[in-house]
Design a protein that fits this description.
about 425 residues, two-stranded antiparallel sheet, mainly alpha, ABC transporter involved in vitamin B12 uptake, BtuC
Length: about 425
């Protein structure tokens, strides 16, 4: 058993996450077999999950760079708002790719304010972040009244419709084109066979590889890039030193203030990317006031649950994006109702996990929640719309309650830093 545990701990992160994903799909397949739905593992659901997770993931990656540099950035929600507005304005005037660049700059502008306040002037990180969250909607409302209200189809709360970028399908996996030649569709072949679990696994995978926005592909490529930068480069090492032990880094000649600035600016740029994505046709297709739906805060939760690592942030973002993606297509609420049974199974595993670690209070809480979810599942055939709307937030709370104590944040995150102080 110990040898197996050591082998598992030494396995690459991508391999362990793939195993977790396969187990998750297996549970969904079992529940789907017991209930009257086919949406839990459909390609349309997994494709929508991929899109809805992008802003959460980008906000989480933004928080990752900022907090690895030692600066708490709860202002990501406000930077998403700025990215949404500037992304839509840039797309309308210069096209979707320039709109993305301008959205990134818009989020970076909010991050620059946060960096000046926290790093240069020593303002409390939370106060500065809250100020940005409050200021961003007011700034964008003013800009909309001055600019979008004068455009056809625009108003003080929304922009006209914006254009999107091209699509991409993975060759061989989902039949993408190579130089005009249509490659085989391997996943589609497995789906057509209809094999239990294998077909469901292929269906989920096809949703992740078929007809994707190029912007979506770019967003997910940032995950391995972020991991490489933070753990395989000198820049990443110095950035992490700024968030772990800035005094030790200073003694080695590292300009800690510079790296804190860079970390915060990168966080705003990534949040701006997420905001521009929300405005794109992949989600809203316009800038719409109030449509961030707390994704900046959920991104921070993804950062914590992901243990301040890029792959963990991505996995948590996908977890939180799944119920939203399912609910948007489940107008009658039956598929979302099936998630109650998924919750019962997940909570049962948590009970066993908690008991194995002698955490009696966690086991009791998980057991009570499992009983309540089971009772709701058996006593109703559907769920109300309000439950569909709040599911991501409920997921966030439950995961933080049971697993936050096992995580490790950067040691100096949130602490004030002054050059030359010991």
């Amino acid at each position: 058993m110990n040898d197996l545990k050591r082998t598992w701990n030494r396995a690459p992160a991508w391999f362990t996450w793939m195993i977790y994903a396969a187990v998750g799909v297996f549970i969904l397949t079992v529940v789907q077999s017991l209930t009257d739905t086919e949406r839990l593992t459909s390609a349309t659901t997994s494709s929508a999950m991929l899109r809805w997770a992008v802003p959460i993931m980008l906000a989480g990656l933004g928080g990752l760079f900022s907090e690895r540099a030692g600066v708490v950035n709860i202002g990501l929600e406000g930077m998403l708002v700025l990215g949404m507005w500037f992304g839509a304005w840039g797309t309308i005037n210069y096209g979707p790719w320039w709109g993305l660049v301008i959205g990134i700059l818009g989020g970076g502008l909010g991050a620059l304010v946060h960096a000046i306040a926290t790093v240069s002037f020593g303002v409390d990180h939370i106060i500065s972040g809250v100020a940005i969250i409050i200021a961003a909607p007011g700034i964008t409302r003013f800009l909309s009244s001055e600019i979008f209200a004068n455009y056809e189809g625009g108003s003080i709360t929304q922009s006209p419709g914006v254009d999107g970028v091209g699509k991409f399908t993975f060759p061989f996996l989902s039949g993408g084109n190579i130089g005009g030649w249509t490659s085989p569709d391997i996943l589609g072949w497995f789906i057509d066979k209809g094999w239990w679990f294998v077909g469901d696994l292929a269906s989920v995978a096809r949703g992740l590889t078929f007809n994707l926005s190029q912007m979506t592909v770019l967003a997910y490529l940032l995950v391995p890039l972020s991991a490489w930068v933070l753990w395989r480069t000198r820049f990443g090492l110095r950035l992490r030193i700024a968030g772990e032990n800035p005094q030790a880094g200073e003694s080695q000649g590292i300009n800690i203030i510079r790296y804190k600035y860079i970390g915060v600016l990168l966080s705003g740029a990534l949040a701006g990317f997420g905001g521009a994505f929300i405005s794109s046709p992949e989600l809203n297709g316009i800038y719409l006031e109030g449509s961030t739906l707390q994704r900046g805060f959920i991104g921070l939760a993804a950062l914590i649950i992901g243990n301040w690592r890029p792959t963990g942030v991505m996995a948590a973002a996908l977890l939180f994006g799944y119920p939203t993606a399912l609910g948007k297509r489940d107008l009658e609420g039956t598929a979302t109702h099936s998630l109650l049974l998924v919750a019962v199974i997940a909570l049962a595993f948590i009970v066993l996990w908690a008991l194995s670690r002698q955490k009696t209070s966690d086991a009791i809480l998980a057991g009570v929640l499992a009983l309540l979810a089971g009772y709701w599942f058996l006593s109703a055939d559907t769920v109300p719309k309000w439950w569909t709307d709040i599911q991501p937030q409920v997921f966030v709370i439950l995961v933080l309650v049971f697993f936050a104590q096992r995580l490790r944040m950067p040691m100096a995150v949130g602490q004030p830093y002054r050059k030359g102080e010991t």
